[in-house]
Specification:
There is one protein chain. By secondary structure, the chain is mainly beta. It is 6% helix and 48% strand. It has 1 helix and 9 strands.
């Protein structure tokens, strides 16, 4: 059974990023919200974002509200913040496998990759 998971790491503080709100959309003619939540104390979601029959082939966007997270950490950001929301657009080609989309983020940069 395939699943989609995520993990957010705060590279500026060197720790998991907890309480980062996220929204997952499937991209069709218009984006369709399929899941939302926030990261736990380990920077992960408590369960898969999608799994089983809900995980279908297609293009998705995972949006993280990072400026809100950094401000909640007491980090002063300009207005508007350089990174307000980080949006990662990716494809699911084989819904029978695991897709892991980690986010490594600081107030001024981020990276991602396909994890396992």
């Amino acid at each position: 059974m395939g699943q989609l998971t995520t993990h957010v790491l705060d590279t500026s503080l060197g720790k998991p990023a907890s309480a980062v709100r996220w929204t997952l959309c499937r991209i069709e003619e218009t984006p369709i919200a399929v899941s939302s939540g926030q990261t736990n104390d380990d920077g992960r979601n408590d369960g898969p974002l999608l799994c089983g029959a809900d995980l279908v082939e297609g293009t998705y966007e995972l949006e993280f509200q990072v400026a809100e997270y950094f401000r909640n950490q007491g980090i002063e950001l300009p207005e508007p913040a350089f990174l307000d929301r980080v949006v990662i657009r990716f494809g699911i080609a084989d819904p029978s496998v695991t897709y892991h989309v980690p986010l490594l983020v600081s107030p001024y940069g981020y990276s991602t990759y396909r994890g396992s």
